[in-house]
Design goal:
The protein is of the alpha/beta class and 379 residues long. It is 54% helix and 13% strand. A hairpin with a 2-residue loop joins strand 3 and strand 4.
């Protein structure tokens, strides 16, 4: 029902600009019918006072200009046609704003084999409010610096440069958001993880205890004689806020700083953190020369890794060379679909740190089918 109404609205929008005198009237009837079909209340919302005043002003100006250039009857006809076309545009855009989102675009164009175009159109639709907000914030900052309320012509270039930077950032964030929903078409997709070890994903919100659970799991596995390699990223908290995180090699217990929080928008890889190369170097070292038939531990896989950056190359190398018995990785819930898309024929068990009373024991139970009997882990 909604799809039929939206198609009728699109048909009305196209008909409104057909060079045929009755076309705007027919288009307005179709647009009104679409609104009544989908959501009758949208007609009342479409005729807000400011919108109606703008329509009347635009049509009045059009009528005056045409009447001045030709004659009064022609001006009246042109003004009325402009008013009808604007009315159709307002009704259709009001419907679209409430009933069309990125998934609507993706599904509709996907049915005709244009899924990638649908994804791009949907992301562009979602990005528009962010760009409007960026324009407002940019002008406020410029106005405060220049000490005036209204822009001037010489302000155009600084505003344009800033908006171009914002547009690139918003586009990248939109593509990342699509990847987190499992839509990888617009992302630089990294090499998939080949092989078929058992994978246990420990998930949960920030601060839910994922890292302490993995630390305890590492101790339990060592007590059982199982080789463990990889790294942990314990967070650094200050007054209830995550201020950064370090890297700890689970084999050598060496520790290095990895990320520290900075002002929003100023971090690396479109994150609120700046990263320390020493932390990445320690993480790579923790994954080189992996033991055969060990358990790989990675805390954690984040959006940066899912773009093929950060720790991804080192993790993929250890996965390929070490051929681990199993892998334990921590991820946030919203990243799981994108991560699963990068796995081959691999068995995956998901453990929620916020649901399990003892997440370490739950992960250990999930690993049990791949672990050697007690005392037989070391060769």
């Amino acid at each position: 029902m909604k799809a039929g109404g939206l198609l009728l609205g699109l048909a009305a929008l196209g008909l409104a600009f057909v060079p045929w005198p009755p076309a705007p009237w027919v288009a307005l009837v179709c647009a009104s019918a679409a609104a009544l079909w989908i959501e009758p209340a949208s007609l009342r919302r479409a005729w807000a006072g400011r919108t109606l005043a703008t329509m009347l002003l635009a049509s009045g100006v059009t009528a005056a200009l045409v009447a001045w250039a030709t004659d009064l009857p022609a001006g009246v006809r042109a003004g009325l046609a402009m008013l009808l076309r604007l009315a159709v545009l307002v009704v259709v855009t009001t419907l679209a704003a409430r009933h069309v989102n990125h998934e609507t675009w993706r599904r509709a164009l996907g049915h005709v084999g244009l899924g990638r175009l649908g994804l791009v159109c949907g992301l562009a639709l979602n990005a528009m409010p962010h760009l409007a907000e960026a324009w407002r914030d940019t002008w406020i900052a410029l106005a405060v610096r220049r000490r005036r309320r209204h822009p001037r012509i010489r302000d155009a270039m600084p505003l344009l440069e800033t908006m171009l930077a914002h547009t690139g950032r918003v586009a990248d964030e939109a593509a990342v958001a699509a990847a987190l929903r499992g839509h990888m078409a617009l992302m630089p997709r990294p090499e998939p993880l080949v092989g078929s070890p058992l994978v246990v994903v420990l998930t949960g919100r920030s601060g839910s205890g994922k890292t302490p659970a993995v630390e305890r799991l590492v101790d339990i596995l060592r007590e059982r004689g199982v080789e463990v390699f990889g790294f942990l990223q314990p967070p650094i908290w200050h007054q209830g806020r995550k201020e950064g995180f370090d890297v700890v090699d689970v084999r050598s217990a060496r520790r290095m700083p990895l990320g520290r929080r900075v002002a929003d928008g100023q971090g690396d890889h479109h994150t609120p953190f700046v990263f320390d190369s020493r932390g990445f170097a320690l993480a790579r070292q923790a994954l080189i020369r992996p033991p055969r038939r060990g358990v790989l531990v990675v805390d954690e896989i984040g959006p940066v890794e899912l773009r093929g950056e950060g720790h991804w190359d080192a993790v993929a190398g250890a996965w390929r060379v070490g051929r681990p018995l199993a892998a334990v990785l921590t991820l946030r819930r919203q990243l799981i679909p994108a991560f699963l898309a990068l796995l081959g024929a691999t068995e995956v068990v998901i453990v929620d740190a916020e649901v399990e009373a003892d997440p370490a024991t739950a992960v250990l139970a999930a690993l049990a089918p791949s672990l050697p009997p007690r005392g037989e882990g070391r060769v």
